[in-house]
Design a protein that fits this description.
heterodimer; A: 201 residues; alpha/beta; Potassium Channel Kv1.1, Chain A; 2 domains; four-stranded mixed beta sheet; B: 308 residues; eleven-stranded mixed beta sheet; three-stranded antiparallel beta sheet; 8 helices; 30% strand; Skp1-related protein (chain A); SKP1/BTB/POZ_sf (chain A)
Chain lengths: 201, 308
């Protein structure tokens, strides 16, 4: 798809190339295109390495196809690049080893992440895949905050955690899927038990 | 309720999320299922290795205190009526935050044992015990703790009512290796075996039950005994024993409170040297500077200031 036909999303006014500022074009898996400044890309270790390896000039950026990010959709990628543009030039945080790990969510990030949990889930996956340390920190913090003041029963619902029984059932189902004969043997065993048999064999 | 499929996140992300949770949230997450407990434990064992330690904490309520060196999270069970089943209170003192979570229960001993089991599994051996013995479950608590581990580093034992038998049961069943602090009421006629090999410090508030021979067997660096029934002669024997390197070889500081109308006899015919005032170790809070006074010398040359 050419640049003209692609649904270009200008993530941020500051991201629009002015003068000699370098920018790159990226395309989501649903063919949405984004222009992102070089400085913003530095927040993502994955993308930063990628563009460094490609060695594109400004002309290359215009003439060659946008760089495809195949496992992230446009809605998610828009959030990612909005975050990167807002935080461009900031130092990548280093874990200071404190427990619990201390992370503050800035106001901009809080507003950016004021989204449904389905999209938050995708945003976390994207931040992890693109290795954007601070975006991963704040999005993980948002998930960790969901546990605040919750009882175990409430946590089970918030994090959709299966109970022991559900885990056991899933494990059995997985085993049976591997070995269909196991289910038949179990049913036969149950049937013999019902009939009062002492021994299976 | 707004939910997110936690277990479908990448494991390193789960690790990040868990690393941002406070100990209460870690405990609640571990309580959800065997699988969630395995995840919390795996992360604690790797990322948080030795960064938390847990003390047993018994007051009117029973529970555990999870500490990271600066902050403390008390996970408690109470049988007192509280406004909600879970009550969270937080206070900050000198930059350290102390958070209490009180859970209402009709059987705090059972729930205490369960939370001890869980904390022991998650965080490893308990470090210390802080126990107020003004309750009726002391012996059950001690017997239970003995099933978890026989040795603890520190203890703080207190009571307002007389609890000599419980203190005796405590010291006979649990070994304390570094610091002992006992301010429980103990009658003087009870026979309690004191732990002799406490490495760092021993403090006992009501010490009338302690006999001279027991005292001479102690090997701690710091010993502080209040309201003893030692006599001038006992104190003299203690000093002479130290000078002859017969006892207290590791002693750095000794404080004994005893009744005496005149202490002149204590140093009679004991060789002393006049010593200058000196700065004491800042950790020994009660007395920052030792006043000018008599020094006694041990056979190996070590000197001690005697302050009567």
């Amino acid at each position: 798809m050419s640049v003209e036909n692609a649904p270009v999303v200008d993530v941020d006014e500051a991201a629009i190339p002015v003068e000699k500022k370098m920018y790159y074009r990226f395309e989501s898996n649903d063919k949405k295109e984004f222009r992102v400044s070089e400085l913003a890309i530095q927040q993502s270790e994955t993308l930063n390495r990628l563009v460094e390896a490609m060695g594109y000039t400004s002309e290359d950026v215009e003439n060659k196809p946008a760089i495809a990010i195949e496992n992230i959709d446009g809605k998610t990628l828009k959030l990612v690049f909005q975050w990167c543009e807002h935080h461009k030039g900031e130092a990548i945080p280093v874990d200071d080893g404190s427990v619990p790990k201390i992370v503050e969510i800035p106001e901009f990030d809080a507003k950016l992440m004021d989204i449904d949990n389905g999209l938050l889930f995708k945003l976390i996956w994207a931040a992890d895949y693109l290795n954007i340390v601070q975006l991963l920190n704040v999005s993980c913090k948002k998930v960790a905050n969901m546990a605040q003041g919750k009882t175990p029963a409430q946590l089970r619902r918030v994090y959709l955690l299966p109970s022991d029984e559900e885990d056991e059932a899933a494990k059995r189902a997985a085993q049976e899927a591997q070995d269909p004969r196991a289910r038949e043997v179990e049913e036969e065993f149950e049937e013999r038990k019902r009939q009062g048999g002492n021994s299976f064999f | 309720m707004n939910s997110i499929p936690f277990l479908r996140l990448p494991f390193l992300v789960i690790q990040d999320v868990v690393s941002m949770m406070c100990p209460f949230e870690l405990i609640h997450l571990a309580k959800v299922s065997k699988r969630s407990k395995r995840i919390v434990k795996a992360i604690l064992d790797t990322q948080f290795h030795k960064k938390y330690h847990v003390d047993v904490y018994i007051s009117e309520d029973y529970g555990t205190a999870i500490k990271n060196g600066k902050n403390s999270w008390y996970y408690m069970y109470t049988s007192r009526r509280i406004p909600t089943n879970y009550l969270l209170t937080e206070q900050t003192v000198l930059g350290s935050t102390i958070v209490f979570l009180q859970n209402f229960t009709l059987n705090k001993l059972d729930d205490f044992q369960r939370i001890c089991d869980l904390c022991h599994d998650l965080f490893g051996d308990f470090k210390g015990i802080d126990i107020n013995m003004d309750n009726t479950d002391n012996q059950s608590i001690i017997d239970f703790l003995r099933t978890k581990q026989e040795s603890f580093e520190d203890c703080e034992v207190c009571s307002i009512s007389e609890r000599g038998d419980d203190v005796k049961h405590f010291l006979e069943n649990l070994e304390i290796t570094r610091n002992v602090s006992i301010s429980a009421q103990i009658s003087e006629d009870i026979n309690i075996n004191l732990p002799e090999n406490v490495e760092n410090s021993i403090f006992i508030q009501h010490s009338k039950f302690i006999k001279l021979e027991q005292f001479l067997a102690l090997k701690s660096k710091q010993i502080s005994l209040n309201s003893t029934k030692f006599t001038n002669q006992d104190i003299r024997s203690i000093l002479m024993s130290w000078m002859a390197t017969e006892s207290h070889l590791n002693l750095e500081r000794l404080r004994i409170a005893f009744n005496s109308t005149s202490t002149e006899y204590i140093l009679q015919n004991i060789p002393i040297e006049d010593g200058d005032e000196f700065q004491m170790d800042a950790r020994l809070v009660e007395l920052r500077r030792a006043p000018r006074g008599p020094d006694i010398r041990r056979e190996d040359g070590k000197k001690a200031r005697v302050i009567l």
